[in-house]
Design brief:
With about 150 residues, the protein is an all-alpha fold. The chain has two domains: about 1-65, no CATH class; about 85-150, Muramoyl-pentapeptide Carboxypeptidase, domain 1 (Orthogonal Bundle). It is built from six helices and no strands. The protein has helices spanning about 1-15, 20-45, 50-65, 90-105, 120-130, 140-150. The termini are far apart.
Length: about 150
């Protein structure tokens, strides 16, 4: 029984890092933590609500404190497939692809130009930021895309 609880806790903590931004990982972590906590609460003798609250707090904190270079499971499912500009998927992919293309043209290796923010893209962004004296955070933002575009001109 203790082994099962431990495995569930580890799985929940790992899944709480789903998302590329700290806010996304916090929300994902809180959701996963609440669901797992509810089950653990029922199994361990706590109420389902107590377990859910404890799980949500633990998952949310773990998600918020985990950096995407430690563990990154990509965009959370609640942000995928919307296709609406400004709230995630298509506009974010376009920004990432623009950054990848610019970085490659400037001599960096962001990996494939596919609009997917992965480890190679993050490393190339960090190196670019370091080389240019920018704040190094590895994030693919519209401001960074504009900065790269100006460097290419």
């Amino acid at each position: 029984m203790k082994t099962r609880k431990l495995v569930m806790c580890i799985a929940c903590l790992s899944l709480s890092a789903c998302g590329t931004m700290p806010e996304e990982r916090a929300v994902s972590g809180a959701g996963v933590g609440a669901a797992a906590g509810a089950v653990l609460g029922a199994v361990t003798g706590l109420s389902v609500v107590q377990g859910a609250v404890i799980g949500a707090l633990g998952g949310g904190l773990t998600g918020a404190m985990t950096r995407n270079d430690q563990i990154n499971l990509g965009e959370p499912t609640w942000k995928q497939g919307t296709g609406h500009p400004g709230n995630g998927s298509s506009s974010r992919q376009a920004t990432v692809a623009k950054i990848q293309d610019g970085l490659r043209e400037l001599g960096y290796n962001p990996g494939p130009i596919d609009g997917i923010y992965g480890n190679q893209t993050a490393q190339a962004i960090r190196q670019y930021q370091k080389d240019r004296g920018l704040r190094v955070d590895g994030q693919a933002t519209a401001a960074l895309a504009d900065h790269i575009l100006k460097q290419r001109s």
